[in-house]
Design goal:
By secondary structure, this protein is α+β, with helices and mostly antiparallel strands. Strand 7, helix 1 and strand 8 form a beta-alpha-beta unit.
Length: 690
């Protein structure tokens, strides 16, 4: 989940009392002038939040420091800090003073340390009624049980490879309430398991819609798509791993309340479905649970699939349960120190249970040497009381610089940056990109062009910048990807305009097109995105593709990955590729900057039309200008500078002569006419004349 929408930024590293982050790696000068990289070590206080319960699951609140033992990588640590926190710990009363006795002042009440709740609503693997009941219980929890010190975040899983963050961690509970209320369960894409858990048919996709104010729903389409259910299960695992890695260094305990049906074993290769490569998602799921636990995230699932059972849960050995997503939810809870809360029908009572469990805990602190090496430390907390159950962070990772990230960590970060509205790791710099498909068959039939500058990139700019262009399909599968490294420093870019260019391959369809620039030293990133609908060219239909506008003059640089060869076998430069795609001379023209157009002036455009008959020889291009205020449409002169025909389409590079006009808004229309069929199609752009 955006790990993951798969929502939350570096601001998630909220300060925990007495917790200090280590300093970052630094460079040092050795004798003789040799520069080396040092990993600095600082002494920090490691704080562990611990919940202790009795055999009935009730919190134990009368323990003292002497009752605890803590081991870090097997080594017993001296506890130097100890605090007890409950929702209401009264101050101790001062004993009656005896004659001549000095009485200590009473112990003040321990302030309640704010909790961190993440409310995650699965809007794919879900039953509509269960979803609604669970949502209402969560609303009551926010209204009645949260304390002013508590932070809360609202997230959803929508089937894609990243979570969507509606509200980042905040003490503004009103914002969280408004967000949860907006999650109407009427417009959900359900991957619904059969109602009878014993039924072994594949999942079917059901699109539901609602028109009533209560969120009632009705099915409007269905088809068996077991492979899509498996794909979406993989997206869920991926987005949760992204969340875990993004919250890894956020101090303190995180409580994640998950409203979901869970994922059936058949879709991750569990039980009787464990064979061959089918088990890859099962391993990924186990790794996901470990990463959630290591990031100190406890999961409290509410099963939204079954709204009929009572307070008594189905036995874990029940054969029917193995056919549902309940084992998935149970394992996630037990692996992370949370609790499986059972059916949505009981959600209100069970949310009160969450309130009780998270409202009484201890904080144990001990000194550590914090080194920026990224190593994992296993933590064990033991209690000297028979029958007591301990829920504590099982371990932690030392921090590390981005340059030391594993390939998987870098990929998770990259996908989250590309897809999430609010990426998990940071708030990236945003810039604009144009995604321009064409009628040609792959390869290199979708072009991406984006202007960049060192000023606009800010602290992202540097000598080693990763430039990645990606295309995602509606389920966030990567359709195509290009990657290279660039030097984006002021000395390299100079003062001229600079554009990133990439050509990728795809068939017509709906896509999310992204460019990610990432500093390979610091990890700081800039992201550009454009969503496109690319129609299939059907017989009897004229298509016109979006134009790219140019102005005359202005030296421009084009950056990217050189690819292909010219007619003489020489490697094509990036400017050669751009010129070939849009039929213009890069030395004479540059992309038109945003803003008003002067009148009178000449405007240039590159665009493509596809013929209805497949014969593009009779395609003609014309243009009109419509005054929005007067509603009058006037033809404007158009001169063809260059054209290219192929694959049933024709690409034009033309000059448009804008006449002298009053200032204001106008609609520029470019029309492709098919002389063989007498059909036409147009594309329009609103321009401002000054």
């Amino acid at each position: 989940m955006k790990r993951a929408a798969i929502l939350l930024s570096i601001s998630l590293l909220v300060s925990f009392p007495q917790m200090k982050r280590g300093t970052s790696p630094a460079s040092a000068q050795e004798p003789g002038g040799r520069l080396t990289l040092q990993h600095q070590t600082t002494v920090s206080l490691k704080l562990i939040q611990v919940v202790v319960t009795d055999s009935r699951g009730n919190p134990i609140t009368d323990l003292g420091e002497q009752d605890f033992t803590v081991l870090d990588n097997g080594e017993e640590k001296k506890i130097t800090e100890f605090e007890k926190h409950t929702l209401s710990v009264p101050a101790s009363e001062a004993p009656a003073a005896k004659p001549g006795e000095v009485v200590r002042p009473p112990r003040p009440a321990t302030p309640f340390l704010g909790r961190k709740f993440f409310l995650l609503f699965d809007s794919v693997f879900v039953h509509v009624n269960g979803y609604r009941i669970a949502r209402d219980a969560v609303l009551r929890f926010i209204e009645s049980d949260l304390k002013p010190e508590d932070e809360v975040a609202v997230l959803t899983f929508t089937g894609r490879g990243s979570l969507r963050v509606h509200v980042s961690p905040t003490k503004d509970h009103a914002a969280a309430l408004a967000s949860v209320r907006s999650l109407i369960p009427g417009n959900l894409m359900n991957l619904v398991a059969p109602q009878d858990p014993g039924d072994d048919e594949d999942f079917g996709m059901t699109i539901t819609g609602s028109s009533d104010s209560r969120g009632g729903s009705h099915a409007i389409a269905a088809s068996p798509i077991a492979s899509d259910a498996r794909l979406v299960a993989g997206n869920f695992i991926w987005s949760m791993r992204s969340l875990a890695q993004s919250l890894r260094y956020m101090p303190g305990k995180k409580h994640l309340i998950l409203c979901s049906n869970g994922i059936r074993g058949k879709n991750i290769g569990r039980g009787e479905y464990a064979y061959g490569r089918n088990t890859d998602l099962s391993r990924d799921y186990s790794d996901m649970c470990k990463e959630l636990a290591a990031s100190n995230i406890s999961i409290y699932p509410i099963n939204t699939a079954d709204t009929t059972i009572g307070l008594k849960e189905i036995s874990q050995t029940d054969s029917k349960e193995s056919k549902t997503g309940i084992p998935f939810l149970r394992e996630m809870a037990s692996s992370t120190g949370g609790r499986f809360l059972g059916a949505a029908r009981n959600a209100r009572e069970l949310m009160e249970r969450v309130h009780t469990l998270t409202g009484a805990y201890y904080v144990i602190g001990y000194p550590i040497s914090e080194t920026w090496d990224g190593r994992y430390h296993r933590v064990q907390v033991k209690v000297r009381r028979p029958g007591a159950e301990v829920d504590a962070q099982p371990g932690y990772f030392n921090p590390k610089p981005f340059s030391d990230y594993s390939e998987l960590e870098k990929k998770i970060d990259l996908v989250d940056l590309a897809l999430a509205e609010k990426p998990l790791s940071q708030e990236p710099v945003r810039f604009m990109v144009r995604a321009l498909p064409e009628a040609a068959d792959p390869p290199d039939n979708l072009h991406m062009l984006a202007e960049v500058s060192c000023t606009g990139l800010g602290d992202v700019a540097g000598e080693r910048i990763e430039f990645v262009s990606l295309i995602f399909d509606p389920l966030d599968r990567i359709v195509d990807l290009r990657r290279t490294e660039l030097d984006l420093t002021p000395g390299t870019l100079g003062t001229n305009r600079a554009f990133l260019y990439s050509a990728l391959s795809a068939a017509p369809g709906n896509y999310r097109c992204r460019i990610v620039l990432r500093n390979l030293e610091s990890g700081r990133a800039a992201v550009a995105g454009s969503d496109i609908t690319w129609p299939h060219h059907e017989p009897g239909r004229v298509l016109i593709f979006a134009p790219l506008f140019f102005i005359s003059g202005g030296e421009t640089r084009y950056l990217g990955t050189p690819a292909g060869k010219d007619a003489h076998g020489n490697p094509l430069t990036v400017p050669d590729q751009v010129a070939g795609a849009f039929l213009f001379d890069p030395k004479r023209f540059s992309p038109c900057p945003e803003g008003p157009i002067k009148s009178p002036s000449s405007l240039f455009a590159s665009l493509q039309g596809a013929a209805a008959s497949g014969d593009a020889s009779k395609l003609k291009l014309s243009a009109t200008l419509t005054d929005e205020s007067a509603g009058t449409e006037t033809p404007i002169p158009l001169a063809i500078i260059a054209e290219r025909e192929g694959n049933g389409a024709k690409t034009f590079f033309v000059r448009l002569d804008i006449p002298e006009l009053e200032w204001g808004a106008y609609v520029l229309s470019l029309i492709v006419n098919d002389g063989l069929r007498g059909l036409s199609s147009r594309v329009m752009k609103i321009i401002s004349i000054e």
